[in-house]
Amino acid sequence: MKIKKAIFALLIIIMVFSGCAADDNTETYSLDNSLVGEIYQMKSDFINTKTVTMYFPDLTSSSLLRIVKEVNIVQGGSEIYAIASKLLSSTVTEEDNYKVPFNGEINMDKITVSRNLAIVNLTGDFTKFSEKEFFNGIIAVVNTLCELKSIDYVEIMINGRQMQNRGLLVNPMTTMDESLHLIYLDHINIIEDDERRLSKDKNILYFLDKNSNFLIAEITNISVSRENAADDLFKLLKNEPYYGSGMQSCVPQNALIASSSITSPPEVDGSVLTIRLESPKYETMDNKTRYMMCGGITLTLLSYYDNVAALQIFINGQPALEETLLTKEMFIANIGQIVTVFLPNRDLEYLIKIDFAMSQTRYNDPEERVKEIILADSDFKTNTSKITTENIVEDDILSVFVHDSCCVVNVSENLYDEISVLPYGNRKMFVYSVVNTLTAFENISSVQFLVEGRIGETFGKDIYIETPMLKNPGLVFE
């Protein structure tokens, strides 16, 4: 039945954007957007084009050139991944005065994003490149990604391992607060002076989100000593993140680090860092809590130690997990991204900004953000109220897509009927919870509601939805 409904909804949308009219002459969706004065026509492949600034090495690998290119981004896909892929696989001609980073011979396995950090795993044979080619290729990737508003730092991994000389970099060619970004890389090509200093005071910590489902990256400016880095970083992990960050410590407060050591076992390709913890309540820790704790510790410590391939964690003399050699790759899939939705307060007077974590496959999709609003329950801790009825389910969101900065939300007749009979405050808060949440996306400036593929006039008698709606910042309680 669900398959038939999905096929029926798809046929309606195709008819709508082909300029067809329904048999009963009801107006179907052609959307005359009075805000920009143009007719919307949905692209069948759900692809949006974005113009971005990229950095390419010159022909001698001695400097970088800024080149503007267009990138096709699939609806709901990763914009950051699409941009990095375009950079590494761009086509150049003999007339161009630049070349593709790493001569187009290096691939990108994945990009993981957490808060303002992008973790990039590059794969291929790097031994064929000179030091200048390698360095310029790395900086080309970093500078390109740091052009995006959402990215301030890039952590580089090479074939699944931390890049030597530390992998955390920031864009050295842009400014923030009228000062140059610091570049976090020990390299002979970077001169340490007053204008562009090397920073050794930034480290990546991994905390739990408030629901204990994901690990979230936090860049800290607190320095640690090389000799006692494991102890110092472990203590930082025990600290609670700042209030309102949507995060919590992944390490129990009663856990202590007894010792740490680095060895080079012959059966392991690289060094192994072993830490021994003591915790009086370790036996009461459930499997999920133990696993996420090990993930936070592993990702944090192996982001610092560039010469360590794996981590061993013992608690009260016993291995923390069945797998004794822990690597960053084991926990990359557990890294989440903090996103924002706007939900009404319990008296339905204003909207409250709520931060929570989503997976890498969901956080970039507007439809997933709308479903979170649909499913959100009342929460006494955040003073937020449920704004939909029990008869509304996530399948009532038929489709959500973006075209020319307008996000179109196509809802079912059931959702429309259920919302329309609610009191005015509920209807208003539902509409602007969706609108304010979606316009928080960089590429969305307005929201158009459809009902089963057709333009609706109102929710109820007084919430007009026949034209695209702009965000209402006046409803947000700061």
What is the count of β-strands?
A: 26
The helix count comes to 9
* Oligomeric assembly: single chain
Q: What is the share of helical residues?
A: 10-25%
- State which percent range the strand residues make up: 25-35%
Description:
Strands 5, 6, 7, 8 and 9 form a five-stranded mixed beta sheet that branches. Strands 15-16-17-18 form a four-stranded mixed beta sheet, covered by helices on one side. A four-stranded mixed beta sheet has the order 21-22-23-24, sandwiched between helices. The chain has three domains: 47-180, no CATH class; 225-334; 337-475, no CATH class. With 478 residues, it is an alpha+beta fold. Helix 2 (79-88) packs antiparallel against helix 3 (131-146) and helix 7 runs antiparallel to helix 9 (424-438). It is built from nine helices and 26 strands. Mean pLDDT is 81; it is low at 1-45 and 172-200.
